[in-house]
Amino acid sequence: MGHFCGNYFWYFLLTWLPFYLVRERGLTMDKMAIAGSMAYCVTALATAFTGWIADRTIAAGSTPTRVRKTCIVTGLTFASVVLVVVIIPEPTPSMAFLMLACICYGVFASSHWAISQTIAGPSAAGKWAGLQNCFANMAGVAAPAITGFVVDKTGHFFWAFAVSAGVSLIGASVYAFLLGPAEPLKWHMKFQS
To answer: Which residue in 85, 95, 115, 187 is deepest, having the highest Cβ count within 10 Å?
Structure first.
């Protein structure tokens, strides 16, 4: 459920950010391509950097639960600043908040797979990751459709951004309050010969 919420934010940006930048912000296609690619690039850089820091922190003795959940909850919580993008009328600060939201999403993205793989352990990591990915990628259907419906009904993007921010906060809550420790499960399997 938490991964679905994180993916909702990502698919919202992948599918609707270019149209938003052109329609609501009045960017040319060339400027939209630059702004959009910057948003995706800062996400990738933040993911790689935060993953590196998280691994170093765990290697130095912090628990995977503390490190991974901190990255996930902090990242998704602060990714909700994406709502400020549509509130601020000036383009430069608005784009700065877009980049901040993408950096925060990158912080989230650095750890969510590590948690499921850690909990599942080597015996079930592939099955768990496949199931998690199947469900989470349903956000690739939901986010574009809901955004399209909201934009069509309201005529602008405010509520679409608000929904994305809200879903991010729900995801952070799921990881913070419903997910237990990021520790391998002890599998008790009996094999018959």
So the answer is: 85
